[in-house]
Amino acid sequence: KPVIYLKDYQAPAYQILTTDLRFELNTEETLVTSHLRIVRAEGADTQAPLQLHGHESVELISLTLDGQPLAAQQWQREGELLSLQALPAEFELICVTRIHPAQNTALEGLYLSDGIYATQCEAEGFRRITFFPDRPDVMSVFTTTLIADQSQYPILLSNGNPIAQGELEGGRHWVTWQDPHPKPAYLFALVAGNLSKFEDHFTTVSGRKVLLQIYAEAKDLDKLAYAMDSLKRAMQWDEEVYGREYDLDIYMIVAVDFFNMGAMENKGLNIFNTACVLAHPRTTTDAAFQRVESVVAHEYFHNWSGNRVTCRDWFQLSLKEGFTVFRDQCFSADMHSETLKRVEEVSMLRTAQFAEDAGPMAHPVRPESFIEISNFYTLTVYEKGAEVVRMLHTLLGPELFRQGTDLYFARHDGQAVTTDDFVQAMADVSGRDLSQFKRWYSQAGTPRLQVRDEYDAAQQIYRLRLKQSCPATPEAAEKLPFHMPVKISLLDDEGALIPGTQQVLELTAAEQVFEFTQIQAQPLPSLLQGFSAPVKLDYPYTDAQLAFLSKHDNDGFNRWEAGQQLAVRLLQRLIADYQAGKPFSLEARLVEVWSSILEDEQIDPAMKSLLLTLPSEAYLSELAEVIDPDAIHQARRFLRQALAQALEAQWLNLWTAMDSEAAYQPTREEIARRSLKNTCLGYLMTLDNAAYLALAESQFNAADNMTEQQAALMAVAHSNFSDSAAALLDEFFHQWQHESLVMNQWLGIQASDPKPGALARVELLRQHPIYDARNPNKLRAVIGTFCQQNPVNFHALDGQGYAFLADRILELDRQNPQIASRLLTPLTRWRKYDAQRQQLMQAQLQRILQEPNLSGDVYEVASKSV
Ligand code: HT7
Ligand code: ZN
């Protein structure tokens, strides 16, 4: 496949006014008839060909132009392009194609998920259905007729409103749907199957009653209430916070088990991975409940940020994704806690996105080129993209930001636009020059922010010297300075905020000094509050200052951050000790900090749980110059155990205090209580003490909810009590074997067990009857978890983990290239490891590249990584 460049963008020569589709659904072969009304775009060359996209799997049956079969010399099919020549300014094109849903294992286009027809058209799936200008800047009004066997597929859904239906001979029936809003093909969807529905209504701010429907298999009907509740809250939030009202009379969500990502925002007919919509306290953890809420909200918010205003081309993906992630983050913060949410977001950004930005696939938020766009649904486009929008919010303040989004939606409603258009709306309402700010979209890499300070006691002046730089990334060695909002406060020696010093410093030059006058004594700076820019901060805090900030910082996020930095330092010292063959020893300072957190009754339990959680192995790996998976694992394991031992009575007291007989409730307080209880259990279980095994087993047995049951299972399964681990895993299996999503957790817990021999256990899991190698959720639970959440086993020096992953990639590439390419990520990070591992990992990448018929997806990632 060729490389596509942003600089080559050209507006389409033709627009499609209307698209009428007729699907005769049969599993082996489905006939698709498309009837397009087409006009040449204003100003386009009269000789311009019409370019339609069509995947090689689509059989072209016939092409008719204004009622006449198209002459052979008038069309040409080459690769994915079908070009039509010598066209009038306005015409009708009828195209008949044949496709094979049952053979579609890639899960792009029209496929079958456990007997349910579903589509996935973003980014370029529509071309697997019929020939069409499959690009987001071609929008049309879709009318879709579905014809299928009535008993097998009683429910027939597509975008918009149902306008007609009927029965046919031979037990077949049909339904016609019409979507009045012009849309690009990537937002097209259809679903056909035997589904049950959960219904409700939402009355919009202008008084329109919208029918809300969530469809799933009948057995899952009791797991839809939370998604429905989340949807209604999201609809209301978008009206209140962004002034956005829903624009159709019906909003549907369908849950399917086979899905490459989390969910899809098709106009009026969202299709969801069951993992992101089904929720029940017995089967779903609190974390998974929150994921359902945020994904439901995310897809709903796309109705404006993505559907009403869409992307001109796929380089602009962050226009809709970064903005929508920012919107869903703010929604979740409003529903729960701003600080907790921020800690969760930043943890993910700093471990996974920073690693991506430092790796071979690093790219700007608005990439310049790609081979396969599916490879660019990344943490950079989504999460860093959201940080960029957040920085605009910080720079403009909430009121101007809202004026900016109002202007953006009003100015571009019904259009396909660019990230420049988004920033322009912000510039226009604020009168600010945001041209430098746009470098956040065009330059890849994680900037370094170095801060140094000096205090002039005689003049009572305090100065902060800020210096920024950004490492080279594949697309550019030299970087220009970013426009960076750095939120700070100055604290006095009691930890109180020095009045007037909480502010947002705007760093625009490579180096800049900020002066604060009338500062009566040397202050302690709290820097980058709320993580106001996605950068790596370097300020020489002493351990004592970090301990002080972890108690007194006026910013909740920075209080957490100070404790984490202290733990990071200690862990880094332990890692070095392990590498030098020195015995581990525990430093008193962290025990004191952890002890005072454990005892502090002012700290909310959810925050306490976060504060007491050590930095993850993934974060420690990201921070390391050269990743030593064994040293990182052993150091963290030692520290957890040592903290458990040193504070044993406190952990047990707190576990007991957090234990409750009350029935499950999904409230904020109860979620916090369960989280802290599980954190305490995790520490206690590191002690290899039979009394705590009994405690974990009692928690497992008494739990009326998955959050407590799963945490107890994980603690026992990962412990050294092998017999108890096997017995509990077995009990859990027998309890939940008919719940596919719970079985994913069961698989994941085993695949992430750090004890030796994990690869052999993973091989057994792959043979287990509940494993299905065609289902992406199962692949992620076993292969993804082993390769990404079990570093000490995956990176074993015999290289077998690497060979295992390469085998799976080669197998999967023929079946589902998108999933194969995503699972490949751990091998692409070889540069961060020692020479021996580097060589082993590269050998596997080379082996993959030698495969003659590699997909564009895997080829792009593997070739950019070697
Ligand atoms: N906009 C959706 C993207 C998506 C997707 C992309 C590529 C392949 C499969 C996919 N499924 C969904 C999801 C979202 O961000 O809302
Ligand atoms: Zn999205």
Automatic annotation (TrEMBL):
Reactions the enzyme catalyzes: Release of an N-terminal amino acid, Xaa-|-Yaa- from a peptide, amide or arylamide. Xaa is preferably Ala, but may be most amino acids including Pro (slow action). When a terminal hydrophobic residue is followed by a prolyl residue, the two may be released as an intact Xaa-Pro dipeptide
The organism's taxonomic lineage, starting at the top: Bacteria, Pseudomonadati, Pseudomonadota, Gammaproteobacteria, Oceanospirillales
Species name: Nitrincola tapanii
Name recorded for this polypeptide: Aminopeptidase N
Source organism superkingdom: Bacteria
Protein's job: Aminopeptidase N is involved in the degradation of intracellular peptides generated by protein breakdown during normal growth as well as in response to nutrient starvation.
Pfam families for the chain: DUF3458 (PF11940), DUF3458_C (PF17432), Peptidase_M1 (PF01433), Peptidase_M1_N (PF17900)
GO biological process, one term: proteolysis
Segments forming domain Aminopeptidase N-like N-terminal: 62-187
PANTHER family: PUROMYCIN-SENSITIVE AMINOPEPTIDASE (PTHR46322:SF1)
GO molecular function: alanyl aminopeptidase activity; metallopeptidase activity; zinc ion binding
All copies of domain Peptidase M1 membrane alanine aminopeptidase, residue ranges: 226-440
Cofactor(s) of this protein: Zn(2+)
Ranges of residues in domain Peptidase M1 alanyl aminopeptidase Ig-like fold: 445-539
